Amino acid sequence: MSETPSLLTSLAPTAFHPDSIALFLDFDGTLAPIAEHPDAVAVPPKTMKALAALAEQVPLAILSGRPIHDLDRFLSPLMLPAAGVHGLERRSADGTIHRVPIADDALEAVREALSPFVMKNPGLLLEHKPGSIALHFRKRPELAEACAECVREATAAHGDALTVVPGKMVLDIKAGAATKGDALRAFMNEAPFVGRRAFFAGDDVTDEAAFSALQASDAITVKIGPGETAARYRCAGPETFAEWLMSLARTMQSLERENELTHGKSKGR
Ligand SMILES: O=P(O)(O)OC[C@H]1O[C@H](O[C@H]2O[C@H](CO)[C@@H](O)[C@H](O)[C@H]2O)[C@H](O)[C@@H](O)[C@@H]1O
Predict the structure, then answer these.
(1) Among candidates 9, 233, 158, 155, which has minimal Cα distance to 166?
(2) Domain edges within the chain
(3) How far away, in angstroms, is 153 Cα from ligand 1 center?
(4) Which ranges of the sequence are coiled-coil (predicted)?
(5) Could you tell me the sign of the dihedral formed by the alpha carbons of 232, 31, 184, 131, in that order?
(6) What is the mean pLDDT of residues 75-98?
(7) Ligand 1 closest atom vs CA 169
(8) Residue nearest ligand 1's atom 25 by CA
(9) Which residues form the catalytic set?
């Protein structure tokens, strides 16, 4: 299998222009380094600075397995267009909220079935999200197979009502079948994203749906960290990616200044 080319050495930030690109960024493992507990994450100050600058220059949306309200909390004071819970909810650039309708009964039954297993095994964690439950085993990696078995049993009776999405030390049990790829396509049909070249960076299995959704286009897809991927480029980790975002923001700012000098005005996104 051929090696995925490096984002840093293959694509200089100068190759991007604010008038033609749309940025889509995953959250955990891409913007926020992985932490022991879902609540313990923090977006490094330089990443926040780069995001704030880029959001002024180009259409930018977050695509995450987290609920949008969590993203807003971790990215405060920024409130960006975002897709949460792997595509189940979406906030457009104009603030409109879109939710995929879901049946909560199956999810509730799974919650009840998983709770005793989690109580019996300290270190396991059930994260409750709108339309999804995530079973985390980062603190008990030796229980990975037992968790998978428990989730298989708990979801078996619910057929297509639920989808199990494996991630980094987590099994996300989600109502319905929406994906980040669906959310990305929806953004690309709306202002201010429509007609632009998509750039999407993500680190996890769930990001592969968006990488695949973009395969047929001229999109730039970037896998953050190691692992099999359908992405076209790779970046070593969130630290390196933050540096790259910062240099992209600087490039965009200097293009904007040039534009102001030439045309005497700012685009004022
Ligand atoms: O799509 P993402 O933005 O990458 O979100 C995927 C899941 O991220 C969170 O879990 C992951 O990050 C935690 C904090 O670093 C880590 O402890 C956990 O092991 C990871 O799986 C989040 O808690 C999930 O809800 C998201 O689905």
Answers:
(1) 155
(2) 7-100+178-263, 104-175
(3) 23
(4) none
(5) positive
(6) 98
(7) 19
(8) 66
(9) 26
pLDDT digits (tens, 9 = 90+) for 129-188: 999 999 999 999 999 999 999 999 999 999 899 999 999 999 999 999 999 999 999 999
Q: Whose CA is closest to 18, among 57, 49, 50? A: 57
- Residue 162: count of CB within 10 angstroms of its CB: 25
Q: Tell which CATH classification among 3.30.420.10, 2.30.40.10, 3.30.2420.10, 3.40.50.1000 matches the domain 7-100+178-263.
A: 3.40.50.1000
Cα 240–chain centre separation: 17
Of residues 10 and 97, more confidently modeled: 97
Within this chain, domains 7-100+178-263 and 104-175 share the same CATH topology = no
Q: How far is the CA of 151 from the centre of ligand 1 (A)?
A: 18
pLDDT digits (tens, 9 = 90+) for 208-231: 988 988 888 899 999 999 999 999
Indicate the CATH number of 104-175 among 3.30.70.1020, 3.40.47.10, 3.40.50.150, 3.10.20.740: 3.30.70.1020
ipTM of the complex: 0.99
